[in-house]
Amino acid sequence: MATLLPSNFSSHLCSVEVCDVQYNMRILKMKDSVFIYIGENKAENFDEMAMALPTETSEICSTTIMGEVVGCGSEDLAQKLARKLKKQVYLSANVPNDRIVRPSIERKLFEEINNNRECF
């Protein structure tokens, strides 16, 4: 009889509506890192991706993996998340980089982290 090992992966889905558009936030928690995808409901795309991780000196090291290198909104948010979660973060935030949508989504994401820490 085979013994099932506990999975090192867990997933979580939440959504937020901003300016009459619903955005999904898909979280894949791994053993030592987390992948977060944010995109418009029913029109999900994967245009950019960034990675950030805390270093031993408490600095945050980050890079854009995919998408525009200059002005990648995912990289800035990945840095904030890595600082808060104290772990490596992969982030794909495929949302408008304006003064209403992105801040609203960030607020919802940090609220979700505070209310469901075990999912991150």
Count of helical segments?
2
Strand content: 35-45%
Report the major sheet.
6 strands, mixed
Low-confidence regions: none
What is the residue-averaged pLDDT?
Answer: 90
**N-to-C SSE string, H for helix and E for strand:** EEEEEHEH
> Considering DSSP H and I runs of 4 or more, what fraction of the residues is helical?
10-25%
- How far apart, in Å, are the first and last alpha carbons? 33 Å
Indicate the CATH architecture.
2-Layer Sandwich
| Number of β-strand runs | 6
The CATH class label is: Alpha Beta
**Could you say what the CATH topology is called?**
Ribosomal Protein S5, domain 2
Report what the structure shows:
With 120 residues, this protein is α+β, with helices and mostly antiparallel strands. It is built from two helices and six strands. Strands 1-2-3-6-4-5 form a six-stranded mixed sheet. A hairpin with a 2-residue loop joins strand 1 and strand 2. 23% of the residues are buried. The model has no long low-confidence stretch (mean pLDDT 90). This is Proteasome assembly chaperone 4. Pfam families: PAC4. One of its GO terms (biological process) is proteasome assembly. InterPro entries: PAC4.
List keywords for this structure.
6 strands; Ribosomal Protein S5, domain 2; 120 residues
Topology:
Elements: E1 10-18, E2 21-29, E3 33-40, E4 49-54, E5 60-66, H1 73-85, E6 88-94, H2 101-115
Parallel strand pairs: 3-6
Antiparallel strand pairs: 1-2, 2-3, 4-5, 4-6
